[in-house]
Design goal:
Layout (H helix, E strand, L loop, with lengths): L2 E4 L9 E3 L26 H12 L3 H14 L4 E4 L8 H13 L18
Parallel strand pairs: 1-3, 2-3
Helix pairs in contact: 1-3
Length: 120
């Protein structure tokens, strides 16, 4: 399953894939360059990033093939960037785009879903 998170999270390092335009200094992990924003400092960064995604992956099949390539390299990838708060970050724009194009849920790593009550 594909998830999102930030570089300094406690997510398993071997699953982290950079989706930042500039990965951290010394980053030795994989990078998914096509998922990085072209201008992360744009005034309306979310709209600019959405335009990037729409131009790179205009058809669902393009996005699916690229994500499958990322998953072949890094099983169960966690797509990472710098921002601690997911709602202020391009990774959640990407998650929304994946949902819209492929109907795949891309949760934030470590987020808890509904909890089942104990039977004991």
């Amino acid at each position: 399953m594909i998830c999102t998170s930030f570089f300094s999270s406690k997510a398993p390092r071997e699953r982290k894939v950079s989706i930042a335009k500039w990965p951290p200094r010394g980053w030795a992990g994989p990078c998914a360059e096509k998922l990085a924003p072209s201008n992360p400092k744009a005034e309306d960064w979310a709209a600019a990033y959405l335009r990037d995604l729409e131009s790179r992956f205009p058809m669902p099949s393009h996005l699916r093939l690229y994500l499958q390539e990322v998953e072949r390299t890094t099983p169960d990838p966690i797509l990472c960037c710098y921002e601690l708060v997911p709602e202020q970050c391009h990774r959640r724009v990407l998650a929304g785009y994946i949902k819209k194009m492929l109907n795949w849920d891309v949760p934030e790593w470590g987020s808890r879903g509904p909890q089942q009550a104990s039977l004991f």
